[in-house]
Specification:
five-stranded parallel sheet, 6 helices
Length: 141
């Protein structure tokens, strides 16, 4: 199984009190982990909200993360756009809107047949999107 890491999961190693269970899970599965350019944008914004030494340390972490994830950062392209349009149409019809960034991440995961690893279950539990919460679920997957 391969995973698409959401920002709340991917940021754990960079936090002062990151969730050890999630960090260990990432380390165990790192070769099967992907992320998206949308998540990198969210993390880059998070870094910019910090100041001083913390910002410098987080910027270095983000640079190293992007280098380490080389070839495993998936973008929003034309094929993903069509998956996104289908998902958005279904959600709009059902009256269940999703934050736009999360809808992009879900479409990328669905297009590449990846399971979204996130603590934000409510915005990702949608038809055709597989979700796993490493903050709460056991290693049964």
């Amino acid at each position: 199984m391969s995973w698409l890491l959401d920002s709340d999961v991917l940021s754990q190693p960079a936090k002062k009190t990151g969730d050890v269970r999630v960090i260990n899970w990432i380390e165990k599965h790192q070769q099967q982990c992907y992320t998206s350019s949308v998540v990198i944008a969210q993390l880059a914004f998070w870094v910019r909200t910090k100041r001083g030494k913390q910002r410098a340390a987080l910027q270095m972490w983000l640079t190293q993360l992007v280098e380490a994830m080389h070839g495993r950062i998936l973008g929003f392209n034309v094929s993903v756009a069509h998956v996104w349009a289908d998902l958005q149409y279904q959600l709009q019809k059902a009256g269940k809107p999703v934050p736009v960034e999360d809808s992009y991440i879900a479409a990328i995961a669905r297009r590449h047949n990846l399971t979204v690893a996130t603590g934000n279950m409510k915005d990702f539990q949608r038809p055709g999107v597989k979700v796993f919460n490493p903050f709460a679920e056991s290693e049964s997957l």
